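Form P-L/3: holo structure prediction, ligand zinc ion.
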Amino acid sequence: MNAEQIWELFFPPRCLLCGEILAIGQGKLCSDCQMEVQRREGRLLFSPQTQQPEGLEAGFAVFYYEESKEAIWRFKFHGAYRMGEDFGRLMAEKAGKAGFLDLAKAQVVIPVPVHRQRLRLRGFNQAALLARPVAAVLKVPMSETLCRIRHTKAQMTLGDQQRQENVHHAFAVVRPEEVRDKRVLLIDDIYTTGATASSCALALRQAGASSVSVLALAAGAVRIR
Ligand SMILES: [Zn+2]
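OUTPUT (holo model):
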């Protein structure tokens, strides 16, 4: 029995989505969720052919927030590094199949940053855990040059107008040479109104990025103004 098998004896692997305990060697998802994920194609949130949030070119998400919120909660608050790896690979796979990666033509992958105060509290940036495997699949670099320069309230707690004000000028690029003249793929766990992604995109464009698209694990009800 190797170390991983012993670990799994005490902490049996759980399905990434529903949390059901899995038999050893069953994989990452229970059979129900496996079927559901295979069936799912993800969805294009917007593209150059539709109305886009300011600064953004195309957007794609794998899940609806409502159906995946428990899984995302586990991912965010239980320090689930393994989930980040698996979810990130799933994002790249679904985005590839749907043709979104051909639209985005990413040259660099950048996670939506969290403020360093929140990073200290949580220990990791969930978007960066997703971005790393996405970058690996795409074979492009991941850069953490985008920083959150203002502490912002959790977007979930705010209305539309407040969300925009909350993230306005909240981001800055530390090393512009990492994005200059490059097509950027922004990675986030949850996409809702697009206010955060849009604010990130504006900072990246200002630093010279030639385009910014966003790939999210889940999207809430999308309202584009
Ligand atoms: Zn399941």
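COMMENT: The chain has a mean pLDDT of 87.
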